[in-house]
Structure formats: structure tokens, C-alpha cells
């Protein structure tokens, strides 16, 4: 079995480890590095996966999944440059960072695959997009697609689209959580107990997303089915339009895309 090391076991690193374990992968084939020893000990206790140093990860793993913040990448690349060969596949999950950065800083010919996952990986419902770097072969891509396919859905896209993907599905869960949070507040405004408002909205979100995933119907059709002539929903829709919610989402996602581009530019060669 392919041995995978996650470098940086924060929110995404943990989601990947948890998702891979739930999909049936053995803890013996997984390892992680983590800068904070307390965090490392807690994850080992919870998941039974070993915490290792970066040198051991580079020596033992076939795939190194980089899941540190983009701002923390430089010292890690300096370390890895001394430790890896072209036999190791490097998978970057970092927002904005191009495969070219890795190819420039690591030994010549190292295969790199850029991935943008999202946190529902934790529950096997990730949406991930993968793009091959210069030296990544079809076999490398297949390996990464299999790994991510066990924790959700995967699409293969040109790397030029990764900043848009990051804004859309990488950050996407946050937008849904934000909407849920705001709708629970509306329940409070209408005088419902918080626990009741939470239950009503969370189950409505689960129901709506299951319909989207299972019926194959367009969101407009599903929304129209809830919007009765002279009924309640259309009054709410009028307010959403009046407050520019659609335009706000377009602008918000564009701003996220711009930030992803900016994170990549911060690592361009001088
Ligand atoms: N949080 C999210 O929803 C998503 C995040 N990403 C990307 O995933 C990466 C990680 O994000 P998060 O998990 O949210 O960040 P995080 O801050 O929760 O996790 C990063 C972890 O890396 C550790 N770390 C940093 N440098 C290290 C080093 N040299 N050696 C070992 N451990 C090190 C930190 O202690 C921390 O636990 C980022 O690059 C982000 O752009 C991608 C998709 C979604
Ligand atoms: O906010 C961020 O930078 C990361 C990348 C995609 C989702 N979270």
C-alpha cells in the first residue's frame, strides 16, 4: 500500500487523515509531521497515526502531502530539498501556491500535483480538484485521484483554474456555514429557541444539499418548487434581491480568487 505522510496536521491535515482512515486505510500506512507537539500527541491518541519528523516522513513515505499554510511553505521547502528524490510524489494542498514553486525549490524532476480539497474531507464528502505539475505523470495523477476519491469527489482541471477552484469549493463550505449561521440568527429574531432554530436550519441544509446531489435537478427548478405564487418564499426572495445577495456572492468569490492569486505571487521568483 502507498505510504502517505501529511506535512502539517492542522484542519486540512487532520481532515485528510480522518477521511483516509474512515475509508479503510490502515494507520500503519499513514504518518504526519506537526510543528506543535501537543497537537501531534492529541492526533496520535485520537487516530492512532504516528507523528514523525520531516526527515523520517521523506524517507518512509511514497507521497508527501503538504498541508501547511502558504505563509509557512518556504522553510519547509528548504528542508525538503535536502531530503527527497524524484521517487517521492509531492502533493500540495496549499491555496495559491503553483506547482512551479515546488519545481523550482525541490530537486529537478520531482513530480508535483496541486490539489484544492475542502474540509468535508473529514466526513468523506470532499470536493477536490487536481492538476499535474510538469513532472507528474498520468500514474501520479491516478494515484492522487484514488487517494482523494476515497474521501469525496475529484475533478481534474488545468492548473490555471486552481485559483477559481480555491475561491469556489476550497472556501465554499465557509459560505454555507455563514448562511446557516445567519439563518439561525433569523430564527432567534423571530423568537424561536436557539436549539430549535439550529435543528430547523441544519436539517433544511442537509435536505436541500441531498436534493441537489440526488435529483439531478437544477437549483432554479428546486427553488421554484418552494416558491408558491402569492406565498411566503417569494417575499423572502424579494428581500434577498433588494439587498443584493447574488451580487455580494459574486463579489465575495471574486475577492477570494484574487487573494489566491496574490498568495501565489508572493512566492514568485524575484
Ligand atoms: N482550511 C481549509 O478549509 C482549507 C485549507 N487549504 C489549505 O490547506 C493548508 C492548511 O490549511 P489549514 O489546515 O486550514 O491550516 P492550519 O493552520 O490549521 O494547519 C497547518 C498546520 O501545519 C503546521 N505546520 C506549519 N509548518 C509546519 C512544518 N514546517 N512542519 C510541520 N508542521 C507545520 C501547523 O502547526 C498547523 O497545525 C493551507 O495551505 C490552506 O491554504 C485548502 C483547502 C481548504
Ligand atoms: O482560507 C483559506 O485560505 C483556505 C484555502 C481554501 C479554504 N481555506
TrEMBL record:
Q: Which parts of the sequence belong to the Pyrroline-5-carboxylate reductase dimerisation domain?
A: 159-263
Q: Does the keyword Oxidoreductase apply?
A: yes
Subcellular location per the Swiss-Prot or TrEMBL entry: Cytoplasm
Reaction catalysed by this chain? Answer: L-proline + NAD(+) = (S)-1-pyrroline-5-carboxylate + NADH + 2 H(+); L-proline + NADP(+) = (S)-1-pyrroline-5-carboxylate + NADPH + 2 H(+)
SUPFAM superfamilies according to UniProt? 6-phosphogluconate dehydrogenase C-terminal domain-like, NAD(P)-binding Rossmann-fold domains
One term under GO cellular component: cytoplasm
Q: Which residues form a coiled coil?
A: none
Question: Do you know which PANTHER family this protein is assigned to?
Answer: PYRROLINE-5-CARBOXYLATE REDUCTASE, PYRROLINE-5-CARBOXYLATE REDUCTASE 3
- Role of this protein: Catalyzes the reduction of 1-pyrroline-5-carboxylate (PCA) to L-proline.
Family in the record: Belongs to the pyrroline-5-carboxylate reductase family.
Q: What is this protein called?
A: Pyrroline-5-carboxylate reductase
Amino acid at each position: 500500500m502507498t505510504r502517505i505522510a501529511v506535512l502539517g496536521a492542522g484542519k486540512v491535515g487532520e481532515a485528510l487523515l480522518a477521511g483516509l482512515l474512515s475509508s479503510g486505510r490502515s494507520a500503519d500506512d499513514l504518518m504526519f509531521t506537526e510543528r506543535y507537539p501537543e497537537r501531534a500527541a492529541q492526533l496520535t491518541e485520537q487516530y492512532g497515526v504516528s507523528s514523525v519528523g520531516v526527515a523520517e516522513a521523506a524517507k518512509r513515505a511514497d507521497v508527501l502531502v503538504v498541508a501547511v499554510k502558504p505563509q509557512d511553505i518556504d522553510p519547509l521547502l528548504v528542508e525538503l530539498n535536502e531530503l527527497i528524490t524524484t521517487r517521492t510524489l509531492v502533493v500540495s494542498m496549499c491555496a495559491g501556491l503553483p506547482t512551479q514553486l515546488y519545481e523550482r525549490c525541490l530537486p529537478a524532476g520531482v513530480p508535483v500535483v496541486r490539489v484544492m480539497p475542502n474540509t468535508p474531507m473529514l466526513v468523506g464528502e470532499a470536493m477536490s480538484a487536481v492538476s499535474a505539475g510538469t513532472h507528474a505523470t498520468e500514474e501520479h495523477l491516478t494515484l492522487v485521484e484514488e487517494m482523494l476519491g476515497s474521501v469525496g469527489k475529484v475533478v481534474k482541471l488545468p492548473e490555471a483554474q486552481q485559483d477559481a477552484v480555491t475561491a469556489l469549493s476550497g472556501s465554499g463550505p465557509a459560505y454555507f456555514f455563514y448562511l446557516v449561521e445567519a439563518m439561525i440568527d433569523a430564527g432567534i429574531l423571530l423568537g424561536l429557541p436557539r436549539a430549535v432554530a439550529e435543528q430547523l436550519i441544519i436539517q433544511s441544509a442537509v435536505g436541500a444539499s441531498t436534493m441537489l446531489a440526488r435529483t439531478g435537478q437544477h437549483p432554479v427548478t428546486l427553488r421554484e418548487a418552494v416558491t408558491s405564487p402569492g406565498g411566503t418564499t417569494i417575499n423572502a426572495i424579494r428581500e434577498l434581491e433588494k439587498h443584493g445577495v447574488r451580487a455580494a456572492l459574486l463579489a465575495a468569490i471574486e475577492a477570494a480568487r484574487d487573494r489566491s492569486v496574490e498568495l501565489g505571487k508572493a512566492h514568485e521568483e524575484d
